[in-house]
Amino acid sequence: MQFFKVKTVEETFALIQEHIPEIREVETRTLEEALHCILAEPIVAAENVPGFDRSTVDGYAVFAKDTYGSSESMPGFLTVAGEVEMGKEAGAPLSRGEAIYVPTGGMVPPGSDSVLMIEHCEEIGGLLNTYRQVAPGENIIRAGEDIKEGEVLLEAGTKLRPQEIGALASLGISKVNVYRKIKAAYLSTGDEIVPYETESLKVGQVRDINYLTVAGLAKGWGVETIYGGITADDYDIFAAKARELYEQADILILSGGSSVGAKDYTTEVIQSLGEPGVFVHGISIKPGKPTILAVANGKPVIGLPGHPASAMIIFRLFGEKIIKQRQGERHGKKPERLFARSTKNIPSAPGRSDYIRVRLFEKEGEWWADPIIGKSGLITTLVKSDGIVEIQSEKEGILQGELVPVIASK
Amino acid sequence: MQFFKVKTVEETFALIQEHIPEIREVETRTLEEALHCILAEPIVAAENVPGFDRSTVDGYAVFAKDTYGSSESMPGFLTVAGEVEMGKEAGAPLSRGEAIYVPTGGMVPPGSDSVLMIEHCEEIGGLLNTYRQVAPGENIIRAGEDIKEGEVLLEAGTKLRPQEIGALASLGISKVNVYRKIKAAYLSTGDEIVPYETESLKVGQVRDINYLTVAGLAKGWGVETIYGGITADDYDIFAAKARELYEQADILILSGGSSVGAKDYTTEVIQSLGEPGVFVHGISIKPGKPTILAVANGKPVIGLPGHPASAMIIFRLFGEKIIKQRQGERHGKKPERLFARSTKNIPSAPGRSDYIRVRLFEKEGEWWADPIIGKSGLITTLVKSDGIVEIQSEKEGILQGELVPVIASK
């Protein structure tokens, strides 16, 4: 077997970018079903939004020039020439010296270049007293000012947030082509691992909680997870089960038991699934060093460390990146992290990236990150945390008060 | 009808806190189904996690004292007295001068107080050469060190993230009592509003996109939405439809048309639903001033402004708060916002809270917020944005370079 050198976090991200292919299978969904999906093609506007000049206030459509010089003490006078009804086409164009009533959202009659708010005028027997002047364009949204016909509204690879869905709806688009949702399959290995529902443990046994944490994160990213159960530390059984799950899913996740057998087999089983195989075997990171990343005939395979806290942090970092890339997400939501000041000095070994669980609190308009005490293997350190501080590999630690990047929990 | 004074944002949040009751209806869910639900009761640990002293490395369980003074140049010697198998109970207790092999995650034999990593020793014919000393407690997680029997692991009102689910599973808990999910019903009003699927618009018409943006946000918060369609500007029809939806849901959302009829009727319709009725009628905020908040016999009613961008920002701010409170969420995930430096001076009227759509970018380890140009009614300003900057009501604006709070988009 090939010799693997431990990779830095930065190298690992670069290798993921290089190795993980997009799914590229497209399906058509209604807008309601397309929320949080990834757009598979660019959207070009087929019409203007709004489709007509709209008033943003209740008021009178006017020529701005006709209001110049108007004030409370020296009002101007215009002839009220009619009224536009909501949802109806405005009638005749406006002539100089005239005003036409328009409700908020109503169509501004042709000719008019601005709307005077009702608060700033008074209609008395067909005559409008104007108490303020307006500028051209004031209180109007022009046809096409929101979206212009022919404009690329959204690019392929965009994750559809509620506002993207809203913008598509405003164009009368009711169905879109998106990449199909991906599926991940999950398999636990290790002689000490028992199903989490096990009520009473024998000494030496631990419950399989990684499936729940990993599937929970995946669900948050829109990925369905198939649970493959717990496999014995036997190469043939392990390899057959891994192959079966690999065939069913777009991503295979193995949660390594920490028994010697499982450790020996995991790499071999992954290599048996297809070419080119393992591209990361060990990351210079704490926690989570014994991580394996592979791609077998285009499908990513992730070998997570067995410790629950490590497994969760590794999946949060690299699993999310792999999933986003696999599902074709190129324009996702920002920010993925925030910055906070550290409440303490935290040492770190240069050449290794450290991920420190922290509580966040706000003080004087900034976030502060307070490290959580406890060994890296404890799941409760994650329960108590609001996020994880990243100490990049080139750093020897962080100083109290230093501004540091924090990946917020999901 | 009562006279309403426009409220500040801060007053509005306080009134929501005071007026919106929790749902308090409980259901039992499996852990997988309980993800992102709100815990209805505190969880007290019925056992220790881990249940036994576990090794965090592959190595030899020892008495720390027996390794003192060991080094590469001056190794110590211990007798190898056996091996612990993964998932099995350790056998006899350790005696002074002995070492017992333990795999990562394996049970540390009674008596031993530390584990020496295999990298730091060498077994030669039943004798262990120790090349390093260990401290008491090193490489061991003690029984109960993660979760202690009798400890309150989670409090009622906690939103269950993947790590909370994992911690519950580690205790062998497979079902939990959570508040039932809540349902929101949505109704649009306004003569100009037509279904968003309408392919070709008549002049003056606009598509109903608020349902999709509001339901999209609600879905992200775990709330199912019932679409009540678009109602005519007729008091009786509007009131009957609102009543019907109010009966079906835990929260009623009305998206006000901007026609005069709809404006007149909305408050009246809301007041007809029950006591005490409207508690906020107009907020000193931009955008979104014409917002109505009410509670009718314990059920919240939200009257959103008709403009799509305003509706979305108002629902993001106050809708989320109302939903969290309604579903009993008291310990949610942090942070709800981040801080960024403004790229520009932004003026604001004191006494009014302004919400400015911004693009976020990272520069020298900080976030910067760049205001998006465009009128407040444009949905594309939200499409282009990564979040909204809050200018609190007491401020007269923000200065270029000032650190400001940003609510990130979801």
Automatic annotation (TrEMBL), chains A, B:
<dbReference type="InterPro" id="IPR036135">
    <property type="entry name" value="MoeA_linker/N_sf"/>
</dbReference>
<comment type="pathway">
    <text>Cofactor biosynthesis; molybdopterin biosynthesis.</text>
</comment>
<dbReference type="Pfam" id="PF03454">
    <property type="entry name" value="MoeA_C"/>
</dbReference>
<comment type="function">
    <text>Catalyzes the insertion of molybdate into adenylated molybdopterin with the concomitant release of AMP.</text>
</comment>
<dbReference type="InterPro" id="IPR005111">
    <property type="entry name" value="MoeA_C_domain_IV"/>
</dbReference>
<dbReference type="InterPro" id="IPR038987">
    <property type="entry name" value="MoeA-like"/>
</dbReference>
<keyword id="KW-0501">Molybdenum cofactor biosynthesis</keyword>
<dbReference type="InterPro" id="IPR008284">
    <property type="entry name" value="MoCF_biosynth_CS"/>
</dbReference>
<dbReference type="InterPro" id="IPR036425">
    <property type="entry name" value="MoaB/Mog-like_dom_sf"/>
</dbReference>
<keyword id="KW-0479">Metal-binding</keyword>
<dbReference type="GO" id="GO:0046872">
    <property type="term" value="F:metal ion binding"/>
</dbReference>
<dbReference type="InterPro" id="IPR005110">
    <property type="entry name" value="MoeA_linker/N"/>
</dbReference>
<comment type="similarity">
    <text>Belongs to the MoeA family.</text>
</comment>
<dbReference type="InterPro" id="IPR036688">
    <property type="entry name" value="MoeA_C_domain_IV_sf"/>
</dbReference>
<keyword id="KW-0808">Transferase</keyword>
<dbReference type="GO" id="GO:0006777">
    <property type="term" value="P:Mo-molybdopterin cofactor biosynthetic process"/>
</dbReference>
<keyword id="KW-0460">Magnesium</keyword>
<dbReference type="GO" id="GO:0061599">
    <property type="term" value="F:molybdopterin molybdotransferase activity"/>
</dbReference>
<dbReference type="Pfam" id="PF03453">
    <property type="entry name" value="MoeA_N"/>
</dbReference>
<dbReference type="Pfam" id="PF00994">
    <property type="entry name" value="MoCF_biosynth"/>
</dbReference>
<dbReference type="GO" id="GO:0005829">
    <property type="term" value="C:cytosol"/>
</dbReference>
<dbReference type="InterPro" id="IPR001453">
    <property type="entry name" value="MoaB/Mog_dom"/>
</dbReference>
<comment type="function">
    <text>May be involved in the biosynthesis of molybdopterin.</text>
</comment>
<keyword id="KW-0500">Molybdenum</keyword>
<feature type="domain" description="MoaB/Mog">
    <location>
        <begin position="185"/>
        <end position="325"/>
    </location>
</feature>
<protein>
    <recommendedName>
        <fullName>Molybdopterin molybdenumtransferase</fullName>
        <ecNumber>2.10.1.1</ecNumber>
    </recommendedName>
</protein>
